[in-house]
TrEMBL record:
The protein's name in its UniProt record: Heat-inducible transcription repressor HrcA
Xref: NCBIfam families: hrcA (TIGR00331)
GO molecular function: DNA binding
Regions crossing the membrane: none
One GO term of the biological process aspect: negative regulation of DNA-templated transcription
Species, as recorded: Leptolyngbya boryana NIES-2135
Gene3D superfamilies noted in UniProt: 3.30.450.40, Heat-inducible transcription repressor hrca homolog, domain 3, Winged helix-like DNA-binding domain superfamily/Winged helix DNA-binding domain
Residue ranges of every copy of the Heat-inducible transcription repressor HrcA C-terminal domain listed in the record: 110-339
Underlying gene: hrcA
Described purpose of this protein according to its UniProt entry: Negative regulator of class I heat shock genes (grpE-dnaK-dnaJ and groELS operons). Prevents heat-shock induction of these operons.
């Protein structure tokens, strides 16, 4: 059987209507229901024939011999690839909520991502998953040395994701006048911030501190040690496997998750095996021109989510992907809305980061 069997216009209409009805009701669909609900302008017999063909090519199936039909994973794939467009109205609604509710000026970047995940899960009705930026792409935004007293200074590092770390440094012994030391520290602080701004954490760890010049020699080994420690801390706090997850309770009330064993497998994956989930969320779209990756049912390689669909996209700094957004829900998903929501969230974060 071909993956995408050719369908005529009538068969496409019936497949679209069947999927929409099943998404709304979670009940197997018969031809009579489609006649009543959708203006297909054909008889019930014509619809039955079309449904029979769709079943024959594997796009619909009967869960029981006396029941109506439900979409297969292949049926959902045709529906997603050929029969729908993302909803622009839903995109606009999400963008407005993100702009109104997320406070970039006062919140940490982690808090912004958590807020975005909560909004995404609320509007979609499914599980929203957002990753922190990948460590190797995180860049330095600001570095400053702040005098505390005669013998101590504080080094403050801020990344472009607004992650902040600071540490106290004991100054090396010196017979210089305090004003001279204060002036040196200001020059050094400006020099470091200017030279290091925009460099990735990976680059910072391999810098040649000899470039600082002889006048700053007494600070170089201290700065190397302290900054390396800070960067390691930043790297640990920004691991790509750190996921913001929202909406679990709501989606598990769906009839597809009525079996306790299935719920437990999904929860275990989300809580204990996030490292397996992250590569899927970072997956690139299969088709050119598509901005999201869509895995439907059995297309998912992980057993716990083979009854689910995973829609994901990356958010970027410029053209470089740094993190990802995903929505996980049953295959009986309102794809046109969910695709639009994932795209809009990714675009919003990309715009703010850029």
């Amino acid at each position: 059987m071909p993956i995408n069997p050719p369908l005529n216009h009538r068969q496409q209409q019936v497949l679209w209507a069947t999927v929409r009805h099943y998404i709304a009701t979670a009940e197997p669909v018969g031809s009579g229901a489609l006649v009543k609900e959708f203006n297909l302008s054909v008889s019930s017999a014509t619809i039955r024939n079309a449904m029979g063909h769709l079943e024959k090519v594997g796009l619909l199936f009967q869960p029981h011999t006396s029941a109506g039909r439900v979409p297969s994973d292949s049926g959902y794939r045709i529906y997603v690839d050929q029969l729908i467009q993302p909803s622009s109205a839903v995109s606009m609604q999400l963008e407005q909520m993100l702009s109104d509710r997320l406070n970039w000026d006062k919140w940490s970047f982690e808090s912004v991502l958590k807020g975005a995940a909560q909004i995404l899960s609320t509007l979609s009705g499914y599980i929203a998953i957002v990753t922190m930026p990948m460590t190797h792409t995180t860049q330095l935004r600001h570095l400053q040395l702040v005098p505390i007293d005669a013998s101590r200074i504080m080094l403050i590092v801020v990344t472009d994701t607004y992650e902040t770390q600071s540490v106290l440094m004991e100054l090396p012994p010196s017979e210089d006048d305090p004003e001279v030391i204060d002036r040196e520290l200001k020059i050094l602080s400006n020099f470091l911030s200017e030279q290091l701004r925009g460099r990735s954490l990976t680059e910072l760890q391999t810098l040649d501190w000899g470039e600082l010049g002889r006048e700053f020699d007494r600070y170089s080994s201290l700065l190397t040690s302290v900054l390396t420690d800070l960067l390691n801390r930043l790297a640990q706090s920004a691991l790509p496997s750190q996921l913001m997850i929202s909406g679990v309770a709501e989606v598990l009330r769906q009839p597809e998750f009525s079996e306790l064993n299935q719920v437990q497998m999904i929860l275990h994956l989300l809580e204990e095996e996030q490292d397996q989930l992250v590569p899927l969320i970072f997956d690139q779209p299969d088709s050119e021109g598509r901005r999201v990756s869509i895995r439907i049912g059995s297309e998912n390689p992980l057993e716990p989510i083979r009854a689910c669909s995973l829609i994901s996209s990356t958010y970027n700094r410029g053209t470089v992907p740094v993190g990802s957004i995903g929505v996980l829900g049953p295959t009986r998903m309102l794809y046109e809305d969910t695709i639009a929501l994932v795209e809009a969230t990714a675009d919003y974060l990309s715009d703010r980061l850029s």
